[in-house]
Amino acid sequence: MTLARRRFLGNTAAWVTALVAAGWLSPRQARAAEWNKAAFEVTTLEELLSALGGGTAIDSDAITIDAPDVAENGAVVQIGVASAEPDTESIALLVEKNPTLLAATFTIPRDTLPELQTRVKMAETCNVYALVKAGDRHLIAARKVEVILGGCG
User: Fold this and answer.
1) pLDDT of residue 45
2) What span, in angstroms and rounded, lies between the C-alpha atoms of 135 and 56?
3) Radius of gyration over alpha carbons of the chain, in Å?
4) Exposed/middle/buried for 150, CB within 10 Å: 0-12, 13-18, 19+?
5) I need a labelling partner for 153 at 20 to 30 A (CA). Which of 21, 66, 123, 146 fits?
6) Closest to 114 in 3D by CA, of 89, 139, 138
7) Which of 32, 35, 36 is nearest to 16 (CA)?
8) How far apart are CA 37 and CA 122, in angstroms?
9) What angle do CA 7, 8, 10 make, to 5 degrees?
10) According to the model, what pLDDT value does residue 102 have?
11) Is 129 exposed, middle or buried (0-12, 13-18, 19+ CB in 10 A)?
């Protein structure tokens, strides 16, 4: 770790501690925003949709998934998602045969381009889904990725 990075992290921690001690920031606010634990514990798409607010998912050509056809190492699989659907509010990544169906959720701020790239772990060959929430609708697209060496073992 570089000296500049250590100083930055030390100063940031000191400021957060001081704000908590002064009562200007509660310990709960100092943590990351509350996450939807239930959504990460489900095993089916129907349960996930319920945990994310209900509804049914409609297949959509407005969602593009950029993923390799073959991933040699399932521990690091690069996935890109773009939504051409107006008013995209969030994008969730689902990996069908992972121990946890939901890999990640991303909130898309208003007036921003609904595109993202991330890396996920994949246990075995399966479909990767992108679930987009746009207004009161859920849209979904899938892409099969063949995994040579599983990354969730």
Assistant:
1) 82
2) 13
3) 18
4) middle
5) 66
6) 89
7) 32
8) 20
9) 65
10) 93
11) buried
Residue type, 112: T
Q: Can you give the pLDDT at residue 30?
A: 46
Q: What are the φ and ψ backbone dihedral angles of 112, each rounded to 5 degrees?
A: -120, 160
- What is the length of the chain? 153
pLDDT per residue, tens digit, the chain (153 aa), is 566 666 665 666 666 566 566 665 555 544 555 567 888 888 888 888 888 777 789 999 999 999 999 999 999 999 999 999 999 999 999 999 998 899 999 999 998 999 999 999 999 999 999 999 999 899 999 999 999 987 666
Structure tokens at 48: 């996930």
Structure token digits, residue 8:
């930055």
Give Cα 19 distance to the centre of its chain. Answer: 30
The full DSSP string for 88-147 is EEEEEEEETTSSSSEEEEEE--TTS--EEEEEE--SSSEEEEEEEEETTEEEEEEEEEEE
